[in-house]
Amino acid sequence: YVIACVWGEKRGLVKASRYCKELYGGANPNVCVDIIASFPQEVEGKRIPIIASCDDAALVLEENREKLKERFLFEHTWGPYSIEQLLEKELQVKLAHNAGFNVPQSWMLEQYEAQINTIKYPILIKPLASLRGAKADIRICRNREDVNKNLSSLQHTKKVIVQQYIDHDYEISI
User: β-strand 20-26 against 2-7: which pairing, if any?
Assistant: First the structure.
């Protein structure tokens, strides 16, 4: 039995789900939290699980953890980093590198500008924060002119990280 609480344009997609038995809509994420907080105390003596369907929803749940934690079960961080921090590409690269993963060379845009004459192309530019960008803002740049053109045409954010592009036969995404 799935109850959904959504805001924005996501209603149609969720409403069409065969799993969704009840759908509540809010004008914004905080209204959705208030709706969720008004649900029954428990179901069969257990806390009600909440599954965030996107990064925005996970962030809103974490921000309202104290309000929801007694009656609901949901994902949030327990370690030294918040979900918002973990969605920052700069920290993701650092954590992956520290864990021993082979990560592409990465620069903040300011560092890239300072090292522009030593950079080998192609490179990727991508939103620094997952929450403030979109897949459409991930661009492959083959030279400095591509970088200038792509930086000026970003739709969702101007804060980007620059990474060495690694050509490969396949990619696994989760």
Answer: parallel
